[in-house]
Fold this protein.
Amino acid sequence: MSTSVDTNEREEGLAFRPKFDASGLVTCVATDAATGDVLMVAHMNDEALRKTIASGEAWYFSRSRNALWRKGETSGHTQRVVEMRMDCDQDAAWIRVEQVGAACHTGRKSCFYRRIEDDAGGVLLSFVDADRLFDPDAVYKK
Amino acid sequence: MSTSVDTNEREEGLAFRPKFDASGLVTCVATDAATGDVLMVAHMNDEALRKTIASGEAWYFSRSRNALWRKGETSGHTQRVVEMRMDCDQDAAWIRVEQVGAACHTGRKSCFYRRIEDDAGGVLLSFVDADRLFDPDAVYKK
């Protein structure tokens, strides 16, 4: 159980003290440094955080593959980190990046290529900014 | 276990099928519609998603308080949703919002008021955009 002294230090201090979840991860949001668009939401473990900070390129931890992962290591679509920030309770990071090519494994620039629309008959998605910059079959299934 | 048919439908279909985690939550990133800055990272359960979509104001689910929460219900610092998007695998939402006042409970506009710096002696945080727009003691401890 954290105390209020701990909470104050984590929120107002200058020590880098990531608050990892039960799986040892923090959430990371990557935005396009030029446009402000959200490119992706992923996770970092301690090693991914430290490699990202040290290298200036984004590293993540894949929950589905249970493995550390340098963004773009297969596709070549790397992310150069322009700025990296931590949130108030240090369980989320925000990186502003220069994205080479596309961030999403489907080939789109951003993973957020569908808008949520409130329709009379219910909630629907509609494509927006959904052009593919690469063919995922060609990139990942070689 | 999801099949590739399920995955394809979730990624390429127009059905709204949020992929909730074991706690029944998706991640939600709120950005400032005017500047593109990330304001906060939080979570939504099914009810929070649906209330946000229906009302055009951000609702979240607080993991620490285990409760549905309309953003700004205590502070008055509501978020009007300009656009809402879902990501490729539908486990994260992105809302572009008009923030009334400040998003962060510490009184700052954004929760991301500290930059991560790679110092020779280790990793440090430094304040950036850290002016308080309100006094949290006055707002939350009345």
About this structure: The helical segments of chain A are 4-12, 46-55, 136-140. The mean pLDDT of chain A is 94. DSSP finds three helices and eight strands in chain A.
